Amino acid sequence: MKQKSEQRTDQAIKLLLQTLERNVTDTGIILDEFEATHNDYELCYSKQYNALNAGHFALKDAIDKINDQFNKK
């Protein structure tokens, strides 16, 4: 039972990382498009851009933290 629980947890971590990495890729593409179509002033004052940018980097931080913990084994 304990081993099965650990295996399921490993699978859940891998699935979570895949999902987060896919989201980082998707948000990165959208941010790049926004940056290509807006000037620096518009980027600084866009609530949408800044919110997505914050979320994008929070996802990257989460991936790094999960990988650090997962690789400590």
Task: Give your account of this protein's structure.
The protein is mainly α and 73 residues long. It is 90% helix and 0% strand. It is built from three helices and no strands. The chain has helices spanning 2-37, 40-45, 47-70. Helix 1 runs antiparallel to helix 3 (47-70). The model has no long low-confidence stretch (mean pLDDT 95).
Short synopsis of the structure:
The protein is an all-alpha fold and about 70 residues long.
Topology summary:
Layout: H1 2-37, H2 40-45, H3 47-70
- What is the tally of helical segments? 3
Instruction: Report strand %.
Output: under 5%
Say what oligomer this is.
single chain
Rg, Å, rounded: 17 Å
Number of strands: 0
Largest sheet: none
**Helical residue percent band:** over 70%
Low confidence ranges:
none
Large-scale geometry: elongated
Mean pLDDT: 95
Search tags:
73 residues, 3 helices
